[in-house]
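Quick check before the chapter quiz. The format below is the same one you will see on the exam, so make sure you can read both the input and the output lines.
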Amino acid sequence: MIADQPFAESKKMRLLIGGAAVVVGLAVGFMVTAIPDTTKLLVLVVGLAAAAATMWRAEWGLYALIFMGYTRFSDVMVRNGAPSTAQAFLGLLLLVICVRWIIYNEKPEGWMQATVMIIFYGLIGLATLLYAADTSRVTSGVTAYFKDAIIVVIIVIMMRDYITLRRAMWALLSAGIFMATLTTFQQLTGTFTNDYWGFAKAGLQQIVAGEANDYRIAGPIGDPNFYSQVLLVLVPISMDRMWNEKKKWLRLLAMWSLFVCVFSIFFTFSRGAFISMIVVITIMLIRRPPRPIVLIATIAILVPLIGMLPETYTARLKTIPEAIPGLATKDVREEASFRGRSSAQQAGILMFLDHPILGLGVGNFGYHYQAYSQGLGLDGSRWDQAPHNLYLEIITEKGLVGLSAFVLLLFLIYRGIKQAGKNFIEAGQADYAGLVMSFWIGMIGYLIAATFLQLSYPRFFWVLIGIGFAIPNVAQRLIDQHREERNAK
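Here is the expected output.
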């Protein structure tokens, strides 16, 4: 199996890797003297190290892929003037998969359902080229989609056993710890003008209408709302690991992950993320009430965080009812953010009513926005608006056909994770059942937050989808092995 056999288990492979190590060492030595740009040098050295680790143990490449994808490592380095590492690393992982298939006869398994579903959904978007008003937006969106689709398939193929699954979850948490620790430090020290190599951006924005501006931390994304959305996924996973890890240092690490992720979510000042976080924490506590001592520890983390919230945060939360029909006490037009969102959503509904089956075309919401919004009288701006809702984005750009495919994709993942939980329990691995359910609860948080946000940064989502499709395969292999061993007795 990919996760069990290192390349170096044969004499030929040891010689090959030894030779490669010499070449890498010489290359690093050359780069140190030939490349004056520190950032480029760092990227190349880290890239070579990741490549060497991947050739030695293939699953390390999987962990690196998850970490890099969830921290936007390649994008951040490109912004710093370094070359992109994403495509080269994906190529390396595909090469590793092929080599292990040829040398060890490790035929990729369990990837068909995910691949068919991903291609099907992509073809729906591609078909919008036939009727979209702006085909360049379709081409750009579909090209980006299929790049992310490769990540999904690679994750599904490379995640072969439950140990790899657990470590992949920790790779996800490690990405969150890295990002959220930086933004927590940034918030506590007030160093908002330092973006920490591009991994901790912050912007001065109006928190509450009519009051002074304040900084909103935005991580490597640069947008506080989307940053809080990707951290949301990690909150229930952190809670589960804090409650259930057997090693004390891992429980402490999970506790730190929970602290910095929740703290960072607070100081994005995202109202949608706050609502979503309350939901996922409540689900976690109801689904599996922790032991009293663990519950006390969880509360001990959360209560001080609440006490650290500034008045501007609580004032912003008080504006949440103003966006809910029937609860608003003020005209929605009094706050710019509500005004823009309301205009975009009403325009989106009108777009859907005009093109309900196939939609307007991938990326074409913005192209048609002005034509539909002018009669609403809510948004006087002259630039395109985003739909501010993932589901509205899908239904306006791909119609009911696209939304149906998207719902089917999520249903398959939910059904697979639910069955995986049962299989883990039957195989005597109840801890893993809790782990995968906490992952799904994190996905619920992401999808709730998506009612306030479009899919502007899709790679995070597709990394999660890849893990979601891989989980049932891992559980099925484990239960098959368990049943074989049981029947052999």
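If your answer matched, good. The longest strand covers residues 213-219.
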